[in-house]
Amino acid sequence: MTEVAFTASATSGTRTYLTHALPLWRRTLLTHEAMIILSVVVVSIIAAASIPRFATPLTLSYLLLDVTPILLCALPVTLILVSGEIDLSVASAVGFSNVVIGWLFAEGVPIQGAILAGVLSGLLVGLVNGFLVAVLQLPSLAVTIGTLALFRGISIGILGTDSITNFPVELKSLANANVPGTGFPLVMFAVLVAIVLFAVMLHFTPFGRSVYATGQGIDTARFSGVRTVRVKFTLFLLSGLLAGLVGAYYTFRYGSARGDNAAGLELAVIAGVVLGGVSIFGGRGRIVGVVAGVLLIGLVQSVLRFMNYSSDVINIAVGGLLVVSVAVPLAFTAITQTVAHARRKTSTPMRAEESQHRKGK
Amino acid sequence: AAGSSSSDQGTTALSVGYVPKMLANPYFDQAGVGAEEAVKELNGDYVAVGPQVGAADAQVPFINTLAQQGRNGIILSASDPSALGQALTTAREAGTKVVTFDSDVEPEYRDLFVSPVPDMSLSKAMVDVMIEQIGEEGKIAILGASPNAKNQNAWISGIEKDIADSHPGIEIVEKFYGNDDDQESFDKTAAALQKTPGLSGIISTSTVGTASAARYISSSSFAGNVALTGIGMPNATKAYLEDGTIKKFVLFDPADMGRVGAYAIRALLDGDITGKAGDTFTAGDLGEYTVEEGGIVQAGEPIVFDLENIDQYNF
Amino acid sequence: MSAIQTRPSQLTAGQRFAAVLASRESAVVIVLALLILVATLQNPSFLFGPDGVRDLLLTPSILVPLAVAQAVVLITRNIDLSVASILGLGAWLSASTLANNPGLPLWLVAVGAVVLGAVLGSVNGVLIAVLGAPALVVTLGTLYIYRGLNVLWADGKVVSAVNMPKEFLEFGVGSLLGIPNLMIIALVIVVAVTWYMRSRPSARELYAIGSAPFAATLLGLPSKRRVFMALVASGAIAGLAGFMYAARYGAVDSQAGSGLELSAVAAAVLGGVAIFGGSGTVWGAAIGAVLLVTINRALPILGVPDFWQRAVVGLLILGAIVLDRLLALRHARKLSEIREKEND
Amino acid sequence: MFNEESTSSPGMAIALEMTGVTKSFGAVVALRDGELRLRYHSVHALMGENGAGKSTLVKIIAGLYLPDAGTLSLAGNPVSFKTTADAKAAGVAVVYQEPTMLPHLSVTENIFMGRLPTSRSGNVDRKRMRREARALFDRLGVHIDPDRIADGLSIADQQIIEIAKAISMDARVLIMDEPTAALSPEEVRRLFAITRSLRDEGRAILFISHRFEEVWDLCDTVTVMRDGAYVSTSPLAETTERDVVRQMVGRDVDSLYPRGERTHGNTLLKVHELTSLGVFHDIDFEVRAGEIVGLAGLVGAGRSEVARAIFGVDRYDSGTVELDGTPVRRHDPLHAMGLGLGFVPEDRRHQGLILEFGLSRNAALAVRRMLARLGIITDSRENSLARTWLSRLQVKARALDTPAGTLSGGNQQKIVLAKWLAASPRVLIVDEPTRGIDVGTKAEVHQILADLTHAGMGILMISSDLPEVLGMADRVLVMREGRITAELSHEDADAESVMYAATHSEAVKA
Ligand SMILES: Nc1ncnc2c1ncn2[C@@H]1O[C@H](COP(=O)(O)OP(=O)(O)OP(=O)(O)O)[C@@H](O)[C@H]1O
Ligand SMILES: Nc1ncnc2c1ncn2[C@@H]1O[C@H](COP(=O)(O)OP(=O)(O)OP(=O)(O)O)[C@@H](O)[C@H]1O
Ligand SMILES: [Mg+2]
Ligand SMILES: [Mg+2]
């Protein structure tokens, strides 16, 4: 199209626009993500100062190793939640990949082949989810509860009572190795690369923009040329792929393949993602928050274990973190509104219509 | 003998972490009682930590934390033979002695394994009690705990071997697993009994399973027709001895494993033993123990419980 | 006018019958009947064995109430993942109370479990209905919290059959006129809630709220109060299910019923309750629960090894929702065909 | 200010009175100093352009919105409705502009929800409910199965159910917000008969419609609103259509539409025998460079559906779409966009904008791929694009990261336009481009559209605003029930010929 002369704009002078409505500090510090990061820092400092032997490279190493599977699964699950869907089947996909690797390896397939097959198995889970959710447009909550059972069932079915353990030692030690002389696990390099890749993908690519648009207004997205089916399909494939990779990592980290491996991991993943500020209704959330959320849960668990609390207290703490992270902002809004109402006495602003629409799972 | 002389030479204080497969399980609680008593006798510091449910990776963080806390001994019943390998290796590199009990890990990951009883003798005891009831002829089923635990598999294959070797008239027609879970064991027993008519008996290698299976059988029409035995916790199984569902069952005292484990750690720390075959150490009142091939110590012998002797035990 | 109308008053009896058969509930009933039939053919003792009928009825008696509770919440476009943890606390309350006070009347203990469940449900209710927090996150949180409280309360102890009064244990496995006591309780719950959901205006409002939350506001329905009550009811039923659990298994530790929440959701979805609210019936969820549990028992008999059972359950759930979508698509196509004819 | 005594029929008591009511949504003032006085035994019309604040006024009376200021009284008693239930209880029944069905519930339950009839035992009395629903439908002369579920009902049937619902409430004040927009003439006739009988029973009725003939047929008094403000109230007998239009629009209508000399180039968009079963049929037309083609018709005629199918958002069953000779793939908006098609959809809040996105994200959404360099897109690139287009279109906003949902309607519309202009399309489809935007902005939008055609763009303009179509379009296509019933040149198109084609199936193709 050739350049258009705008009569309308010619009549009044050019306008200028601020880039941001709020100053930098308010945009960065008064956010959910900043609160979580702050919590991580505060908890680390207090723990390091008050718990003997806590502040060691070993603590860091263990913390990072423990959160690695959760973190890797949380990355694509973040994107899925941002796009307005959910994936409860990640842990089953991890387990499925783990079992396929063990099974094929035990059947004599070379380890490289087994790993490849394991990753593809994870991808298969993503493919099934993607087809059912994106193409057939079935509710992802129900679909992934179904695939959670299906692929866990297949895993248990394949290995039965067996537990495969004789994996190559080099791979096992690689999965557990630290950068020499530090408490920094080698695998964290892969995790860091994944974090950066996902952060760039979500925040700095057209695809990322499509993901947000899909989650916030799927109709507007479609009217803007976003292939929402393809976007969702891709996200579930990514989730399957990462779960497949985590399955391989898991195999060598623990040197074990069995039907019940990684069971229940999905709740830890969802908890970390939600704690990191990702909305269950789609359209909101950032990778940095999720990384911090997963780390915060891992850190709190690690501290409580150090204080010899057992898993009951730890679970209460994790559940409490979750509830608090959603309830406190809402309670805060409710209180400020009540205060505002009391001030204006006769009239209040209309209760947000949107919140009525968004009420859901 | 060697152990007692070196324990007062001002060596480091004992600090033991006890890690069962899962907390809140009477069997492991009883083993913990033994471990705690022994640690106290040795003037040590004791803590019991662990997951709520048994899963391969669930114990790893607890072992890691114990190592970080600088504890010098871990008494562990492993949920998986290899999943804990890295955690245990790191702990041992930092000077922590690792003694497994009840359920072992691969030998390279621990210093010593305390077996409750020789596997074969326990299997034999279970088979013998069953034969006493049903005679040398009949179909039986086996109710196991978790399909992946090493000791379970050892006991079950012991039963299979004993039957194959010495009781040709007995046929094992079914094996099922209740995962040490009341509900699952109960429901699976119901399903198994329906699925295989003509069953003469069930041997349960899961203490939880024995009580659950007894509870199902006693309330069903199979009561009196299907013999049940296996290993069981005296308190939980007593009621079924009394109502006749179970005539006799087998176990050992889990506390012995804990006690032996604690003394073994002391001996390992003091350098009295290294875990190789032939090493000997004294475990308080229990007397002297010898390390067998593969770094195994047998804590005791099977006990057969019946209405006569049941009241002597409380765990 | 181009309105499309289908008038059942003009349908033949055969068409009506076909419509009834096409409903999800009847489909599940048929699958269930076929399953029992095939399993019985394979192994007559499945049904005709000494405990066949009894076990058929007894096994689902815990999951049925949970599925009913879940259905009520799902219908309002919410979800309650904490049901299994509430069940755990109800079971522990029942078992430990009876172990310490063997003389206590059973009904009193059951009421205690129900009240405890209602209180726990009301915590969910305050957070979800009053504050407006997303149900999935809140109940995921309380799933952890309630289970953790259970572990603290139980303090590593187990209440086993020996500690419980005989009367309680006998109640758990006993039956009346051939129907197990626990199944009678489950049936009473199903019938009562089904009646309520069909007949009471407040229950129809639950459907309205789940069907279109904003339209419900326009209609002036008391959405917050209704959703709150649905969560309280869900908690109360789960608490009662805990009492039943203790009676049934005679041994309770702090992990009673853990993991059942997903089975409850699966049963409801299987029985035709839409996960996004507004439709489905409570008895459909109940029959879904029966199917889910019975499959687990029938598969070994049908020669499907133990280990593959979960996979079959997963397939079943997926099959049910895919079938729903296909039927909906067919329905939509028919509507557009009708419209097309009327236009010409 | 009008004189109350002279404009209202004496002797009829006031049923509802609203004074000085104000309501704003963030920066958008939807209603300022709203005024209304309804009397018993009367049907009162409320007229005003799109976005004049009519529905907002209705929603305040209904208790859905709490007003920022002002008073409301019923039969002389001041009231303050906190919820819709309060208003219902006070005897106010409302038919909302958008039907609000409960899709999973039966038609009967939809009618009675919130006040389900109960038997003595407190159970829902289904028999009575069904009987009453049947009676209502008989009275309305429609045949809807009371037992079917609401899902899948046509908009017309939904509207009828809404009306039945309101009538069944037996309310003293009945408010109907554009109830006839989707109804056929026969249904409208019946609705009017019932409305008159309700009036004769003594009820106060507020009737909102954009159709003048209906207002003159049914009502006795008319209140006109403009830009959220009250303008006047007068007995219909004492006013004319011309007066009302002048009051609604606020100026001479013709001056709105800038039409310089246009030279039409070659054909850009060619739509051939496009059919979507049950929705539209055999749609055939072309759009040339530098031309505005208007697509007129009543709401529900299927215009937006045609546009959506062309752009690829909806599927269609047969036919072809070509852009400059290249076939446009079915159901693939990205492909259509690549070929140079742009689409400003009718519902800007749900189809045009991501309300929570900032302005620059919205403006850049359609061109996100082109903005990326080596696959990476940055805020600064989006911002510079947005700066250009926002200032060209004179968007009133402070910052580029302002959430789009907080802008006023007209400015929101400009963002949607900016988003598509940024994509440099060759053919732009605009669906109700000026719905709900104020008179000034409306003129600006028309100017923009005119400027675009001068630069060689082809425009397909869908509008329910007849003067707009007549004023802007070089050719007018008229649709009725999914078919094109007339094609009129600018010269031949007048209100009468377009309305005739919109309501009669055998119209002449000129
Ligand atoms: N078990 C149930 N639980 C909840 N809702 C139900 C149930 N059965 C039916 N419904 C709902 O109730 C509405 C009407 O049901 P149905 O047609 O069976 O009642 P009916 O035959 O009109 O009752 P009656 O003749 O006794 O008054 C439907 O919307 C249906 O979805
Ligand atoms: N919930 C809301 N949030 C923000 N702005 C709103 C909201 N509802 C209405 N508005 C704005 O208020 C103004 C008046 O809208 P209203 O719906 O009252 O117009 P109307 O006169 O009914 O128009 P129409 O004839 O198109 O129905 C419009 O600019 C609209 O965009
Ligand atoms: Mg309106
Ligand atoms: Mg339209």
From TrEMBL, chain A:
Localization per record: Cell membrane
UniProt KW keywords: Cell inner membrane, Cell membrane, Membrane, Transmembrane, Transmembrane helix, Transport
GO cellular component assignments: plasma membrane
GO molecular function, one term: transmembrane transporter activity
InterPro entries noted in UniProt: ABC_transp_permease
Membrane topology value: Multi-pass membrane protein
Record-annotated membrane-spanning stretches: 34-54, 60-81, 88-105, 111-134, 141-161, 181-202, 231-250, 262-281, 288-307, 313-335
Pfam families recorded: BPD_transp_2 (PF02653)
Top-level taxon: Bacteria
UniProt xrefs under PANTHER family: ABC TRANSPORTER PERMEASE PROTEIN YPHD-RELATED-RELATED, AUTOINDUCER 2 IMPORT SYSTEM PERMEASE PROTEIN LSRD
Name used for this protein in its record: Autoinducer 2 import system permease protein LsrD
Automatic annotation (TrEMBL), chain C:
Protein name: Autoinducer 2 import system permease protein LsrC
Keyword Transmembrane part of the UniProt annotation: yes
Entry function: Part of the ABC transporter complex LsrABCD involved in autoinducer 2 (AI-2) import. Probably responsible for the translocation of the substrate across the membrane.
One Gene Ontology cellular component annotation held by this UniProt entry: plasma membrane
Cellular location(s): Cell membrane
Location, primary (coarse class): membrane
Keyword vocabulary terms for this entry: Cell inner membrane, Cell membrane, Membrane, Transmembrane, Transmembrane helix, Transport
UniProt membrane topology term: Multi-pass membrane protein
Lineage: Bacteria, Bacillati, Actinomycetota, Actinomycetes, Micrococcales
Gene Ontology molecular functions: transmembrane transporter activity
Transport in keyword set: yes
InterPro entries given in the database record: ABC_transp_permease
Pfam family for this entry, one: BPD_transp_2
Transmembrane intervals: 21-41, 56-74, 81-98, 104-121, 126-146, 171-193, 205-221, 227-247, 268-295, 307-327
Subunit structure, as described in the record: The complex is composed of two ATP-binding proteins (LsrA), two transmembrane proteins (LsrC and LsrD) and a solute-binding protein (LsrB).
Protein origin, superkingdom: Bacteria
From TrEMBL, chain D:
Coarse class of the protein's main subcellular location: membrane
Record has DNA-binding as a keyword: no
Top-level taxon of the source organism: Bacteria
GO molecular function, one term: ATP binding
Protein keywords: ATP-binding, Cell membrane, Membrane, Nucleotide-binding, Repeat, Sugar transport, Translocase, Transport
Subcellular location: Cell membrane
The keyword GTP-binding belongs to this UniProt entry's keyword annotation: no
Protein name as it appears in the record: Monosaccharide ABC transporter ATP-binding protein, CUT2 family
CDD domains referenced in this protein's UniProt entry, alphabetically: ABC_Carb_Monos_I, ABC_Carb_Monos_II
Species whose genome carries this gene: Mycetocola miduiensis
A GO CC term assigned to this protein in UniProt: plasma membrane
